[in-house]
Amino acid sequence: MGVGSGEVPNLFAADEKAEICEKMRFLDRQKDRAKQTDGSPVALFNMFVSRCRDHLHVVLAMSPIGDAFRNRLRKFPSLVNCCTIDWFQSWPADALQVTATTAIVVT
């Protein structure tokens, strides 16, 4: 899958793609006239890919330790360029205590 493009080439058979385009045509007609596509199958499928890209979220968890992580980043540069990376470190004991106490008091 192209993380940057949001599309997996040849994922759908021709009949599935036609069905997707028909469903997108229905959604497209509900838009304001100025925001509608030209109604071509290519435009409708691009609308589908765009909606998937906007609404699909994927979470990957990897250990940053060792060569495997570095090799994945080299192999798939979109993991860095098109993603948000959260580095989770160990929490100090006092931070865990405060967070737990606050959560218990709030609920």
Condensed summary:
By secondary structure, this protein is mainly α. It has helices spanning 14-29, 41-55, 67-75, 78-81, 93-106.
Descriptive labels:
107 residues, mainly alpha, 5 helices
Could you please describe the fold and organization of this structure?
There is one protein chain. The relative contact order is 0.10. The mean pLDDT is 83. The longest helix has 16 residues, at 14-29. Helix 1 packs across helix 2 (41-55). The protein has helices spanning 14-29, 41-55, 67-75, 78-81, 93-106. Helices cover 54% and strands 0% of the residues. It is built from 5 helices and no strands. With 107 residues, the chain is mainly α. It has 2 domains: 1-58, no CATH class; 61-107, no CATH class.
Low-confidence stretches: none
Q: Helical segment tally?
A: 5
Order of helices and strands: HHHHH
- Tally of extended strands? 0
Approximate shape: elongated
Helix share, percent: 40-55%
Largest sheet: none
Provide the structure class.
Answer: mainly alpha
> How large is the share of residues in beta strands?
under 5%
Number of domains: 2
Question: Which radius of gyration do the C-alpha atoms yield?
Answer: 21 Å
End-to-end CA span: 41 Å
Mean pLDDT: 83
Record the SSE blueprint:
Layout lengths: L13 H16 L11 H15 L11 H9 L2 H4 L11 H14 L1
Helix pairs in contact: 1-2
